[in-house]
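queue> pop job 88
queue> type: inverse folding (structure -> sequence)
queue> payload:
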């Protein structure tokens, strides 16, 4: 066991993500699905503030989430156990990303915890070591260590960074329903499997600094998500009625989104949806923290 000195408070913005593509190639021997997905962080973020303390504690703006099952607490405990850390930390999480919404909020919070405690406790972990720890917490946690634009493969934990895309504006619409990622994946059938070509095309475009046209985006989880949460179709219909040309499902849903031509169009679209009572957020692409 090692006892570490007290570091300065660390504040991390834990960004949400959208999926520009998400394909499932088949079922793996370990029970997970083999995926190919291009993810992009966007400017909706939870705020994590971490200070040194004798014990590891987590408080949250949503008290329901302040439990030992919270990924923030689990990430802290895993680092303590892996590296023999005696010091604790007080972790304060301000939630802005909707829970179980297909935006990766919990995974982003876990990654933010790893980054923050690596600094606070002076662990000096390399990125690859942080990714190893992150993969034990969830398939998409490694992506959020750096964010930006990236290809995720295997069960989602193998990350290949892609060049930063031009800064696009997005409107997120989150229906008032939570959707379990495990339940959505559990409803996937072989007819949802694809070859990965849509993702390969998205990667090729990104490598040239361009975003593939929205007509060519694909999400294999959209069908099972729709079956489990009819509210998704209502959210998509609202986006289209408000003037969006496209309405995509992010991850396992239920959040839907569209990419707009500029900031003014995104803010106008979001404001119109908000007046109708929808939870709509205009946000911008966020580049990788490595950029």
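queue> result:
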């Amino acid at each position: 066991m090692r006892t570490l000195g007290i570091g300065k408070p660390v504040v991390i913005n834990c960004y949400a993500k959208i999926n520009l593509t998400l394909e499932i190639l088949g079922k793996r021997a370990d029970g997970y699905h083999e995926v190919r997905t291009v993810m992009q962080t966007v400017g909706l973020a939870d705020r994590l503030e971490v200070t040194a303390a004798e014990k590891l504690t987590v408080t949250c703006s949503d008290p329901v989430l302040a439990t030992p099952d919270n990924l923030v607490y689990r990430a802290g405990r895993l680092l303590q156990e892996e590296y023999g850390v005696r010091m604790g930390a007080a972790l304060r999480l301000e939630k802005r990303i909707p829970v179980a919404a297909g935006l990766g909020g919990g995974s982003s919070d876990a990654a933010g915890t790893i980054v923050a405690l690596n600094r606070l406790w002076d662990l000096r972990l390399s990125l690859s070591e942080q990714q190893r720890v992150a993969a034990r917490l969830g398939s998409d946690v490694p992506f959020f260590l750096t964010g930006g634009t990236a290809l995720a493969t295997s069960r989602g934990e193998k990350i290949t960074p892609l060049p930063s895309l031009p800064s696009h504006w997005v409107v997120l619409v989150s229906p008032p329903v939570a959707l379990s990622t495990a339940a959505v994946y559990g409803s996937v059938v072989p007819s949802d499997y694809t070859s990965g070509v849509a993702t390969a095309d998205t990667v090729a475009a990104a490598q040239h600094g361009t975003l593939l046209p929205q007509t060519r985006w694909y999400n294999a989880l959209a069908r099972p998500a729709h079956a489990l949460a009819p509210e998704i179709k209502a959210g998509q219909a609202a986006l289209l009625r408000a003037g969006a040309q496209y309405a995509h499902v992010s991850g396992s849903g239920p959040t839907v989104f569209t990419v707009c031509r500029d900031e003014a169009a995104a803010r106008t679209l979001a404001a119109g949806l908000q007046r109708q009572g929808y939870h709509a957020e205009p946000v911008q692409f966020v580049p990788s923290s490595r950029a």
